[in-house]
Fold:
Amino acid sequence: MSGKPRLTYLNGRGRMESIRWLLAAAGVEFEEVYLETKEQYDKLIKDGFLLFQQVPLVEIDGMKMVQTRAIMSYIAGKYNLHGKDLKERALIDMYVEGISDLMQMILMFPFSPPDAKEKNLESIKEKAINRYFPVFEKVLKQHGQDFLVGNKFSWADVQLMEAILAVEEKVPAVLSGFPQLQVFKTKMSNMPTIKKFLQPGSPRKPPPDAHYVETVLKVFKK
Amino acid sequence: MSSKPKLYYFDGRGKMESIRWLLAAAGVEFEEEFLETRDQYEKLLQGGSLLFQQVPMVEIDGMRMVQTRAILSYIAAKHNLYGKDLKERALIDMYVGGTEDLMGFILMFPFLSVEDKEKQRAFIVQKATSRYFPVYEKVLKDHGQDFLVGNNFSWADVHLLEAILMVEEKKSDVLSGFPQLQAFKARISSIPAIKRFLEPGSQRKPVPDDKFVETVRKVLCMYYDVKAN
Structure:
């Protein structure tokens, strides 16, 4: 295993994208292996790489890590993005879990049947505007600091930034009622590691398209 | 806020049950407020105590915590059930992720139609015996220790016991191919705090019934159909 973490997933966002964001934000270079065929996936399972037969898989520090949350917790802990004590960690965890619920809706969206797409899009918009964004708008307004927790850059900021951009791709004017989040978005975009990740040629993956959906269905076919 | 944690949820398992298990295993006494009416829920919402308008919510150490995983992580760390370092924590998180996925299939079970229930029961048993139980069986066999991680009782052990018992409620002999897990189940069940939790009269909740489903639907205005996996 080289010194760099190695990510195994499809060549697309899915559940791995949040991990790419976090590693990038932490300034950690990584390698990627892309699953393109069912045979590749079956071989990974047969060779015992996937603890629960699932990806994401991240090989890091001698471990074959699976389970998205476990992986991100480890990266956040290792690179000091998980708060300075238990209470800050609790806040970060709460924020990240909330955002993750919103991201889950976006994750599943490309796989919705055509007649459900409009309803699901409306759902994403409604939840972002009424449930999730107001929380973070309020947090930032109340403490007036640049970052969500403890006046320090953390996993929560990275996750929120990812979510804002992902929702904007679907609902372009979504931040219009959220001035704090607009400022937050600009500040995050200017942080060197994030700025680099947002440039063309970075490991950031484009929004899922029909080809991506096709590949997922093919690789994970039962 | 009292000094004991206070749990806000329905009078039933759902997502709160893993929290009850972990507090009990840590020897922590807790209070509960049960949601029975829509009005109660709306009052909680208006009062601003539900960060994302959802339960579970646990008042603990001056915080109103939401998001099951965040709550469990906090309790585990506070009570030294989260490993001794980052790598042990990573293992615990991976194992808990697996048992959480498994218990997730059971979480929606009471909300399914009768035919879907039979399908789901088969699905749960299949996943338990082919994907999840073999992993923990092997972990225990390979290191030969009493606990899953670091030779020390942890959140992972509590969560696995909870999952085993839940699957057994769907198929009583499901552990028949898993001798390590049988021994594990006996061992962890006999830990005093857990033994107490498994006795009648504890705060452990029974298998969810129609009344539970009705209450959840009413309080959350959740009248849509839930599909099987």
User: Anything to note?
Assistant: Chain B is about 55% helix and 5% strand.
